TrEMBL record:
It comes from Natronomonas aquatica. NCBIfam families: dhsB (TIGR00384), PRK05950.1 (NF004616). This is Succinate dehydrogenase/fumarate reductase iron-sulfur subunit. Belongs to the succinate dehydrogenase/fumarate reductase iron-sulfur protein family. Signal peptide: none annotated. One of its GO terms (biological process) is respiratory electron transport chain.
Length: 287
C-alpha cells in the first residue's frame, strides 16, 4: 500500500516538474521572440533612445538587490517616457512593472522620478530630456517592485483632512442648486486640479523626515474645501483645526519644492501659507 502511495507521489512530482519546465520554456521562447521583434524595430528606426530603469523584486531570488537595466528604444516623434517604458516591457522584459492608466495626465498613477525630478511619465516628452533617461520610483516611499511604490500612507494622509464636501446649509428646495459665486470658484479652482499623484509629497523634505506630516497634497485638499464658502464657517473652523495640528501647516518651511514639481501647476506653497494666515486669524480673540 505504501509503495503505491510513494509511486503516486512520485508521478505527481514528475508532472509538476514537467509543467514547470514547459512553462519556463514557453516564457524563454516568448522573451526571445520579443527580443527579435525589438531588433527588427530598432533596425528600421532613424534614432534610438536609451533609458535606464530601476529594477527591484523582493520576491525573486537574484533580483532582491536594486539595480538599473538599460533598454534601447526606437525613438519616434511625440514619444513620452511612459511610451518608452511600455515599449521596453512589451519587447524586452514582460516582468518590468510600473503603474499607468489614462495616459492623459489625469489619473496621476504614473508619477516617477525621471532624471532626478518628480514627473508624470505620460506627460514627459523624451525629446525634452537628456539621454540616457534615468527612471526611478518616487523617493521617500517604500518600493513594492521596480517602479511601483506603496501609496497607502499617502492616501491615509489625504483621507485625514476629510476630502469631501460637507455642509449643514442646504437649499430649501429639493431640486435647488447650492450655488457658488464666480469669485469663490476662481479662488478654489486651482486647488481642485489635484490628481493625487504624490509627486509633491515625494519632493517634500519635511515629509521625508516627518512621517506624520500631512503633506502638501493633503493640505491643498483641505484648502479646497476650507475656502469653499458653501460649506459655512463652522466647517471651515473644523478644517482649520485639522490642519493647524503639530504635523500640519506649521511644519511647512516654504521650500517651494512641491509647487515646482506639481504636474498640474497648483500653487501649493501659496495655499499652505494662506491656511497658516487663516489659522492665526481663527485663534485671535478680541476682548
Amino acid at each position: 500500500m505504501s509503495t503505491q502511495i510513494q509511486e503516486s507521489e512520485t508521478e505527481t512530482e514528475t508532472e509538476e516538474t514537467s509543467e514547470h519546465q514547459t512553462r519556463r520554456l514557453a516564457e524563454k521562447r516568448e522573451r526571445a521572440d520579443m527580443a527579435e521583434r525589438a531588433e527588427t524595430d530598432l533596425s528600421g528606426a532613424d534614432e534610438t533612445a536609451r533609458i535606464k530603469v530601476f529594477r527591484y523584486d523582493p520576491e525573486v531570488e537574484g533580483k532582491k538587490d536594486p539595480r538599473f537595466d538599460t533598454f534601447e528604444i526606437p525613438f519616434t516623434k511625440g514619444m513620452t517616457v511612459l511610451d518608452a517604458l511600455i515599449y521596453a516591457r512589451d519587447h524586452f522584459d514582460s516582468s518590468l512593472t510600473f503603474r499607468h492608466s489614462c495616459r492623459q495626465a489625469i489619473c496621476g498613477s504614473d508619477a516617477l522620478f525621471i532624471n532626478g525630478r518628480q514627473r508624470l511619465g505620460c506627460k514627459t516628452q523624451m525629446v525634452d530630456l537628456e539621454w540616457p533617461v534615468q527612471i526611478e520610483p518616487l523617493p521617500h516611499a517604500e518600493v513594492v517592485k521596480d517602479l511601483v511604490v506603496d501609496m497607502e500612507h499617502f492616501y491615509d494622509q489625504m483621507e485625514a483632512v476629510e476630502p469631501y464636501f460637507q455642509t449643514n446649509d442646504l437649499p430649501d428646495g429639493e431640486l435647488e442648486e447650492q450655488k457658488q459665486t464666480r469669485e469663490n470658484r476662481e479662488k478654489v479652482k486651482m486647488s481642485t486640479r489635484c490628481i493625487w499623484c504624490s509627486a509633491c509629497m515625494s519632493s517634500c523634505n519635511i515629509a521625508a523626515g516627518d512621517n506624520k506630516y500631512l503633506g502638501p497634497a493633503a493640505i491643498n485638499k483641505a484648502y479646497r474645501f476650507a475656502m469653499d464658502h458653501r460649506e459655512g464657517e463652522d466647517m471651515k473652523e473644523h478644517r482649520i483645526n485639522i490642519i493647524e495640528q503639530e504635523h500640519g501647516v506649521w511644519r511647512c518651511q516654504t521650500q517651494f519644492s512641491c509647487t515646482e514639481v506639481c504636474p498640474k501647476d497648483i500653487p501649493l506653497t501659496e495655499h499652505i501659507q494662506e491656511l497658516k494666515r487663516e489659522a492665526v486669524k481663527s485663534n485671535l480673540k478680541f476682548w
